[in-house]
Amino acid sequence: MRLPIPAKAHPVRTEQIILFRVSGQLFAVSSASVQEVRSVDTLAGAAKEIAQAGLRKVRHIVQRGEHALYVVNGAMHFGLPPFAPALVFVLRRTRTALLVDGIEKMTTMTRLQALPQAFCNDERDWYRGVTAIDQTVVPVVKPEGFLTPDELFLLDSSLQPKESPTETAAQETASGGLLPQPDIIDTDGEATSFQQ
After folding, report:
1. C or N: which end of the chain has fewer Cβ atoms within 10 Å?
2. Do the Cβ atoms of 82 and 23 come closer than 8 Å?
3. How does pLDDT run across 108-143, given as a tens digit for each residue?
4. Taking Cα atoms as reference points, which of 51, 25, 14, 12 lies closest to residue 137?
5. Separation between Cα atoms, residue 50 and residue 30, nearest integer Å
6. 19: helix, coil or strand?
């Protein structure tokens, strides 16, 4: 008599994650997504302040070779109360460094659930899903969800050097002293110019 061959159990797919806190709230990120973990103090000398009025969550930039890393304040991004960050995660394959309170622990995630419908609007872009760790539901962040392409464009354009009055005067001299003047339509419907 032959016994049936037992079905092979499929190995559970696991992923190493870092549990971290922002303003006391618990989040998770894939450890493969974090290139470096640094103390905020180590960035103090390397970070330059930038002022982009439309994007309050980014206040600093770190230049790494040809690339600029934008430092995102985790609390402002998630809409949480302000906090004093202790660590910064440099995220792999992004131009983002994330300020966090600290690391809770590193662990293994065996299941990633789809986001519940309660997560809406921008939140759906911030998270890969949720997981349960020690009977606590934890959102798992998307590293590329901290800065949208539009936000990156806005930040990049704020770094472009502005044309100085000296450069404008040099262009004016090179063009014979006259720059093209815009036409204005007067109330009679005729085009007029500022030049006389």
Report:
1. N
2. yes
3. 999 999 999 998 999 999 999 999 999 999 999 999
4. 25
5. 29
6. strand
Token representation of residue 176: 């014979």
Contact (CB, 8 A) for 21 and 98: no
State the DSSP H helix or E strand holding residue 174, giving kind and residue range, or none if neither. helix 165-174
The residue with greater pLDDT, 188 or 130, is: 130
How many C-beta atoms lie closer than 10 Å to residue 123's C-beta?
Answer: 14
* Distance between CA atoms of residues 107 and 140, nearest Å: 13
Instruction: Give the C-alpha separation, 75 to 146, whole Å.
Output: 11
Phi, psi torsion values for 160, nearest 5 degrees: -65, 135
pLDDT at residue 181 in the model: 39
- Torsion, Cα of 88, 28, 126, 67 (10° steps): 30
- All domains of the chain in start order, with CATH: 15-154 (2.40.50.180)
Token digits for 159?
């770094």
> What's the token pair of residue 164?
């100085």
pLDDT tens per residue, range 32-58: 999 999 999 988 778 888 876 678 899
> 82: which residues sit within 8 A by CB, 6+ positions away?
23, 75, 76
The size of the chain, in residues, is: 196
